């Protein structure tokens, strides 16, 4: 029987905070109450909780209490490995110890990842078909490096107790890891696999089914929600932390692709298992695709060209013939090696067939507003051939039906209320007609006193030809006033590198640029030396946590709108407009507001932090959409006077 005599969540929070040597915060208490109310009312909840609120504790305490009461695990989903590790290595162990005496038992927890993240014992020891035979695409030294990684994985495989890729330090590249892992589709299944009894992925799933809290990621959460076979243990409550990333992560999971590599892989895997003439038909279709993609211009494919339609139909039909020629899917029960080869072939063929079908079905709608998916061609790079991709224009319907259907979901982040409202993200999540509440529990920071938001209104609008000289001069003067201690967030890697090259010799402080070394090491170096500056792009907008005097100035070169030629976002804008909405505000401005708020959030990370956010793009002060963007940012003291941030930075430099 579930225990209905547990202490209230607020009381458990107080016990936990005292045990951990902290002090209760108003926003944290408000959030605990809101989460508990959502659980009691079986209602969805969106919580914006600023940095320093203690939101992890605020959702973990009522979640653990519910798990004990319902006798079911709760699922905590994050977007980043860093937050998963923080929860599993720090927050949950300390919380479990603190609450152990107040609850029926000490709370238990486990981390669960996708099958690809675990070493496959059978693949590591058996004659499994190779995933690719494309060493010729790599330089000899790269092949040698991969070979050394393979050897290191083999040695690690003899001693690992979890098979978790993240425990292999230093890490290995994808090419090496693929030789030791399988996808869920390729897996033979625990009952048929000779190594099923000692399968690392199955052991992780088994542990997850016995604990109170399962920590996972948005991708696996999406796979569990969208798939027909459950991946996560049965649960009736989910907490989505870093919820501002949910739509992008779900979109990535349901995006499919076709390329010469995926088609050639299907040919290789099926080649020795069926009659040659049938395999040759698929090979000819793969060659047609290769030639077509090599000649086609990159970008969105709004109308289906006849030659592409014929090629996709040929891939669909020839892959279906190969599937039929393979025979029943459950065959070869007594020959695991043959079963593994056939399962790998079925997986590759299904991917080609289903993606070709999906791409063909993306066309033929009566109007733009009826279109459900977009197809685009991504051009070749030095390391891979052209890729044809297909993705949904909206994942809200999937999330509404599959994730929010029969469970309570709490979504939280420091950035959810865009333009001062939760409605934008709620629409993207598909929550429009569901019962849900949105609450902003605030921040422990006094933003108007701790930070200045300076918009360089006097600068020219950013152009497409790189950073204007006026921008470089502005950056140099601000950094000199700050004495270094600057995080430069740029809208592109090209802009970050150009600024670094132009200013490295001009400034009298060390200047690091993303790409000089691993991002983790660069951030560490930046944090340890107060004079150092760090320039970079997307991952720095959301992944940097540097409290203290090493970071006093965050420079943002331009409002981070998506690229106008980005196939998915431009198609989504057009789709919203076709339905009578404002495509620019719904898609582009929402994207920019989210990223801008995340970037501005790098400044204040601890209670005594102070500094300046400098946005060089004057549109933040002058454009018609500026009030929406400004309404998405914390309430810093605002100015467009260049003298004010310089004076404040010089004063801070003296005080520190």
From TrEMBL:
<keyword id="KW-0347">Helicase</keyword>
<dbReference type="Pfam" id="PF00270">
    <property type="entry name" value="DEAD"/>
</dbReference>
<dbReference type="GO" id="GO:0003678">
    <property type="term" value="F:DNA helicase activity"/>
</dbReference>
<feature type="domain" description="Helicase ATP-binding">
    <location>
        <begin position="14"/>
        <end position="286"/>
    </location>
</feature>
<protein>
    <recommendedName>
        <fullName>DNA 5'-3' helicase</fullName>
        <ecNumber>5.6.2.3</ecNumber>
    </recommendedName>
</protein>
<dbReference type="InterPro" id="IPR014013">
    <property type="entry name" value="Helic_SF1/SF2_ATP-bd_DinG/Rad3"/>
</dbReference>
<keyword id="KW-0378">Hydrolase</keyword>
<dbReference type="GO" id="GO:0016787">
    <property type="term" value="F:hydrolase activity"/>
</dbReference>
<keyword id="KW-0547">Nucleotide-binding</keyword>
<dbReference type="InterPro" id="IPR014001">
    <property type="entry name" value="Helicase_ATP-bd"/>
</dbReference>
<dbReference type="InterPro" id="IPR006555">
    <property type="entry name" value="ATP-dep_Helicase_C"/>
</dbReference>
<dbReference type="InterPro" id="IPR011545">
    <property type="entry name" value="DEAD/DEAH_box_helicase_dom"/>
</dbReference>
<comment type="similarity">
    <text>Belongs to the helicase family. DinG subfamily.</text>
</comment>
<dbReference type="InterPro" id="IPR027417">
    <property type="entry name" value="P-loop_NTPase"/>
</dbReference>
<dbReference type="InterPro" id="IPR045028">
    <property type="entry name" value="DinG/Rad3-like"/>
</dbReference>
<dbReference type="Pfam" id="PF13307">
    <property type="entry name" value="Helicase_C_2"/>
</dbReference>
<keyword id="KW-0067">ATP-binding</keyword>
């Amino acid at each position: 029987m579930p225990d209905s005599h547990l202490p209230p969540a607020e009381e458990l929070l107080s016990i936990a905070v005292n045990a951990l040597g902290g002090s209760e915060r108003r926003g944290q208490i408000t959030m605990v109450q809101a989460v508990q109310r959502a659980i009691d009312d079986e209602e969805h909840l969106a919580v914006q909780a600023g940095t320093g609120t203690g939101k992890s504790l605020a959702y973990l305490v009522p979640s653990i209490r519910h798990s004990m009461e319902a006798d079911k695990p709760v699922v905590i989903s994050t977007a980043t490995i860093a937050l998963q590790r923080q929860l599993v290595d720090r927050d949950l162990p300390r919380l479990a110890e603190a609450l152990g005496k107040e609850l029926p038992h000490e709370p238990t927890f486990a981390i669960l990842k996708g099958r690809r993240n675990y070493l496959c014992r059978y693949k590591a020891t058996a004659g499994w078909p190779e995933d690719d035979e494309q060493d010729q695409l790599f330089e000899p030294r790269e092949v040698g490096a991969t070979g050394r990684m393979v050897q290191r994985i083999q040695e690690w495989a003899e001693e690992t107790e979890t098979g978790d890729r993240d425990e292999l330090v230093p890490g290995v590249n994808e090419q090496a890891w693929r030789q030791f892992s399988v996808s869920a589709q390729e897996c033979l299944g625990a009952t048929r696999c000779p190594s099923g009894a000692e399968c690392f992925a199955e052991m992780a799933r088994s542990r997850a089914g016995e604990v109170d809290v399962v920590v996972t990621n948005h991708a696996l959460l999406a796979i569990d929600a969208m798939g027909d076979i459950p991946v996560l243990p049965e649960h009736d409550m989910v907490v989505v932390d870093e919820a501002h990333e949910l739509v992008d992560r779900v979109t990535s999971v349901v995006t499919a692709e076709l390329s010469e590599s995926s088609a050639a892989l299907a040919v290789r895997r099926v080649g020795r298992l069926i009659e040659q003439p049938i395999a040759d038909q698929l090979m000819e279709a793969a060659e047609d695709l290769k030639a077509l993609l090599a000649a086609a211009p990159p970008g969105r494919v709004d109308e289906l060209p006849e030659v592409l339609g014929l090629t996709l139909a040929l891939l669909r039909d020839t892959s279906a013939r190969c599937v039929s020629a393979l025979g029943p899917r459950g065959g070869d029960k007594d020959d695991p090696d043959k079963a593994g080869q056939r399962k790998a072939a079925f997986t590759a063929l299904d991917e080609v067939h289903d993606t070709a079908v999906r791409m063909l079905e993306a066309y033929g709608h009566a109007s733009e507003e009826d279109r459900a998916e977009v197809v685009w061609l991504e051009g070749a790079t030095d390391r891979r051939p052209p890729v044809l991709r297909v993705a949904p224009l909206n994942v809200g319907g999937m999330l509404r039906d599959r994730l929010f259907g029969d469970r309570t979901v709490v979504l939280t982040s420091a950035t959810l209320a865009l333009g001062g409202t939760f409605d934008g993200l709620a629409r993207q999540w598909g929550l429009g007609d569901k019962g849900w509440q949105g609450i902003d529990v605030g921040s422990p920071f006094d933003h108007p006193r701790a930070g200045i938001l300076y918009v360089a209104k006097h600068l020219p609008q950013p152009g497409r030809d790189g950073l204007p000289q006026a921008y470089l001069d502005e950056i140099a003067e601000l950094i000199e006033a700050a004495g270094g201690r600057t995080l430069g967030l740029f809208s592109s890697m090209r802009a970050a590198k150009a600024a670094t090259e132009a200013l490295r010799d001009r400034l009298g402080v060390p200047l690091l640029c993303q790409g000089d070394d691993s991002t983790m090491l660069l951030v560490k170096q930046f944090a340890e030396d107060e004079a150092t500056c760090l320039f970079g792009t997307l991952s720095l907008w959301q992944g940097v946590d540097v409290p203290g005097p090493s970071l006093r100035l965050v420079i943002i070169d331009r409002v981070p709108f998506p690229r106008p030629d980005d196939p998915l976002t431009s198609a989504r804008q057009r789709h919203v407009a076709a339905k009578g909405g404002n495509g620019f505000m719904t898609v582009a401005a929402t994207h920019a507001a989210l990223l801008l708020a995340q970037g501005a959030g790098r400044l204040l990370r601890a209670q005594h932090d102070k500094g300046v956010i400098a946005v060089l793009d004057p549109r933040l002060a002058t454009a018609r959409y500026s009030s929406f963007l400004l309404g998405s940012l914390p309430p810093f003291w605002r100015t467009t006077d260049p003298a004010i941030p310089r004076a404040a930075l010089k004063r801070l430099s003296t005080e520190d």
